[in-house]
C-alpha cells in the first residue's frame, strides 16, 4: 500500500458503499474499502482461496500497515509520557 518512508493513510469505505456491500460494522475500519472487492471476489469464485490472492494480499497489507502505524503512535505516546 504505502512505502515504508511514508505515513500510512487509510481509506475507509463510505457509509453507502459499506451498507450496499453488507459489510458488518466491526469490519468498517480503515481498510474497509479494500474488503469490499475481496468479498465480491470471494463470492464470485465460491471462496476458492487461490483465485483472490491479489485482493487478499492488498487487504492484509493494509491491515498490517494500520497495525504498524498504531504501534508507532503508541510507542511515541509512551515515550512522551516517560519523558514528562
From TrEMBL:
It is a peripheral membrane protein. Its main location: mitochondrion. It is found in: Mitochondrion inner membrane; Mitochondrion intermembrane space. GO terms for cellular component: mitochondrial inner membrane; mitochondrial intermembrane space. It comes from the Eukaryota. Keywords: Disulfide bond, Electron transport, Membrane, Mitochondrion, Mitochondrion inner membrane, Respiratory chain, Transport. Pfam families: NDUF_B7. InterPro entries: NDUB7 (IPR008698). Belongs to the complex I NDUFB7 subunit family. Accessory subunit of the mitochondrial membrane respiratory chain NADH dehydrogenase (Complex I), that is believed not to be involved in catalysis. Complex I functions in the transfer of electrons from NADH to the respiratory chain. The immediate electron acceptor for the enzyme is believed to be ubiquinone. This is NADH dehydrogenase [ubiquinone] 1 beta subcomplex subunit 7. It comes from Rhodotorula mucilaginosa (Yeast). The lineage of its organism: Eukaryota, Fungi, Dikarya, Basidiomycota, Pucciniomycotina.
Amino acid at each position: 500500500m504505502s512505502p515504508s518512508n511514508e505515513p500510512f493513510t487509510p481509506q475507509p469505505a463510505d457509509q453507502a458503499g459499506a451498507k450496499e456491500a453488507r459489510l458488518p460494522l466491526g469490519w468498517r475500519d480503515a481498510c474497509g474499502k479494500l474488503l469490499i472487492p475481496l468479498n465480491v471476489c470471494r463470492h464470485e469464485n465460491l471462496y476458492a482461496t487461490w483465485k483472490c490472492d491479489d485482493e487478499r494480499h492488498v487487504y492484509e497489507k493494509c491491515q498490517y500497515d494500520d497495525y504498524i502505524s498504531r504501534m508507532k503512535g503508541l510507542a511515541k505516546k509512551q515515550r512522551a509520557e516517560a519523558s514528562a
